[in-house]
Amino acid sequence: MSDQLLEKAARYVREAKRVVVFTGAGVSAESGVPTFRGGGNTAVWRGMPATELSSAELLERDAVTVWEWFEYRRGILAGLSPNPAHYALAEAEKRYDEFLLVTQNVDGLHQRAGSTKIIELHGNIWRGRPFGSSKTVPLPDTPLPEIPPKGPNGEVLRPDVVLFGEMLPAGAFEEAATVAASCDVCLVVGTSALVYPAARIPEIAGQAGAAVIEINPEETRFSDFADVSLRGPAGEIVPKLFGK
Ligand code: BJW
Prior knowledge:
Elements: H1 3-15, E1 18-23, E2 44-45, E3 48-49, H2 50-53, H3 56-61, H4 63-78, H5 84-92, E4 98-103, H6 109-113, E5 118-120, E6 123-130, E7 137-138, E8 157-161, H7 172-180, E9 185-189, H8 200-207, E10 211-215, E11 228-230, H9 234-243
Parallel strand pairs: 1-4, 1-9, 4-5, 9-10, 10-11
Antiparallel strand pairs: 2-3, 6-7, 6-8
The chain binds ligand BJW.
Ligand BJW binds at residues 24-26, 29-30, 35-39, 50, 54, 104, 106, 122, 161-167, 190-192, 194-197, 216-218, 220, 233-234.
C-alpha cells in the first residue's frame, strides 16, 4: 500500500462529518477469528462448510448440530481479544457527531473494544432467542449447561444469529441504509461484500455520493467501486488511517 493512497484516504476521513464503517469477518481475523471465505483460515467444521452449518435449513432439521457448531465457535471466541482495528474504530466514534458502525460480525469484539454506536446486521453469537420470537436472552457463558439451551421460562432457544435464508432483524438494515445514504465517508473493512442484503450498505453510501474506502488484503468484488482501496490487514491500516 502506497503512502499516497493512505494519505488520500486519511484526508477523506479527516474532513468527514458523517462516517459509516461497514465491517466483516476480516476485521476480526487478526484476533484469531476464522473468516468465512478466502483470507486464509476459512471455517469448515466436521467436514461441512460454514454456509451449510449456518443455514436455516440445517437449524430446522438438526438444531443440536447447529448449536454444537456455535458452541465450538463460542469456545474459541471466549479466549480471543479485540485487535488494534477494533480499538481504533471504538475511538473513532468519539470524533464524529454522526458515526455508525454497521457490522456483519456476530463475535461481539467491537463492543468489547468499546464501540457503542453499532448495528449488528447478523445478530450476536452471545445471545439466543426462542424460536419465532425476537426477545433475546444473553448467553455469555461457554460451555452451555445444555444443548439446546433454554430461556428463563424453560423455552428452547435458537442462536440470535441471522442464518442463510433468514431475514435480518426488523429495522436493522433499514436504519443502517438510511444513515449510509447520507454519510460523507464509508469505510468497508474486512469483508468480501458477497452477502446480501448487508452488502447493499456500502453500495448505498457510494451511490449517494460518499467516498468509499476499502481496507482488505485481497481484491474483492467491491474494489472497483471503491474510491480508495487500501491493501493490507485491518489491524495495521485502520489505526494508521485514524492516526493521520
Ligand atoms: C481481512 C483480513 C485482515 C482477511 N484485515 N481484511 C441476492 C443474490 C443472491 C443471493 C441472495 C441475494 N440476496 C440474498 C441472497 C441470499 C443470501 C446471500 O447473500 N447469499 C450470497 C452468498 C450470494 N442472503 C441471505 O440469505 C440473507 N437473508 C436474506 O436475504 O433474507 C431474505 C430472504 C429470506 C428467505 C429467502 C430468501 C431471501 C441472510 C444472510 C445472513 C448471513 N449470515 C452469515 C452467517 C452468520 C452465522 C454465523 O456466524 O455462522 O453471516 S453468512 C456469513 O457471511 C456471515 C458473515 O456476516 C457474512 C459476510 O461475510 P464476510 O464478513 O464478508 O466474511 P468473508 O469471509 O466472506 O470475507 C472476509 C474478508 O476479510 C475477505 O475479503 C478477506 O480478504 C478479508 N480479510 N483477513 C482485513 N487481516
